[in-house]
Amino acid sequence: MKKVTVIVSILLFSILRFQPFVSSSPLLYGNQVYEESSGESRNLNQEHEHAPEVHCSRERSRVASKVIEEYLTPFVEKENYQLSRKCRLHPENDMFRDQEEHRIYLDRNEWRCGYCKKSFREEKFLDQHLDNRHCNLLNLSHGKCLADLCGALHCDAVTNSKSSRSKCNPAAAARNRHLCESLADSCFPISGGLSASRLHELFLHQFCDAHSCSGKHKPFSRGGKGQGSFFRLAAGALILVLLPVFYLFIYLIQCDMNGRTQDLRRISKSGWKAKPS
């Protein structure tokens, strides 16, 4: 009996000593081998774990920035008006601004990070890289999320999303209109002078009036940068077409007048010759 007890004790002792070796053996645990051989993936996961939690959509912030640039900035520049830093539409009130300025588009299948010069085949991978590797460059101050203004700025109309084609919700339209009017009041106060008053009215027509379920007003009714250049191009083409026609018309009128003048001269000369002396 003592021999059996001794043998069992020796076996248990051997198993306990062998267990750590088995748990660390790469032949039995392929997952651990994969983790050790994929250091880059592990680093990215660690960076993602240490990245701050951001409750702001980069994509919708990008759309909001595009709307401001296309449908508001041209009018602000025309008025030579300086937006206040307190205005939520100010470029510096975008937490992704610095990162967006370091997104380099080279080709359809090549994007590059302006910070570390790393290349990516798709834009979404570059965005993930910025979220993981350069999250320390985000401006996480309160009120820096442009995506929060998408309702007032009609982002869905620009992206042609389903929500823009869905049935109008009066409560949502009222909330967006209130946010839109508060932006007009804070960014372009009527007491700020003539330029501010004109931009205040323009902002109401350009963005706020369309927040209604009546369908009478469309967003961006005053046009934008792209439409302005199109109209200028169309006007230039029309002038080039009509200018030769105008000169041809003038030429024909002059020819007709010269012909009539010559006819009058012939008539007058013949009249003088026919008169008896």
From TrEMBL:
User: Which GO terms label this protein's molecular function in UniProt?
Assistant: transcription cis-regulatory region binding; zinc ion binding
Q: Which residues cross the membrane?
A: 230-253
UniProt keywords, alphabetically = Membrane, Metal-binding, Signal, Transmembrane, Transmembrane helix, Zinc, Zinc-finger
> What residue stretch is flagged as signal peptide?
1-24
Q: Indicate yes or no for the key word Membrane.
A: yes
Q: Which domain of life is it from?
A: Eukaryota
Q: Which residues form the C2H2-type domain?
A: 111-134
Q: Spell out the InterPro entries in the cross-references.
A: Znf_C2H2_type (IPR013087)
Cite the PANTHER family for this sequence: RE51073P (PTHR21385:SF0), ZINC FINGER PROTEIN-RELATED (PTHR21385)
Q: What is this protein called?
A: Putative transcription factor C2H2 family
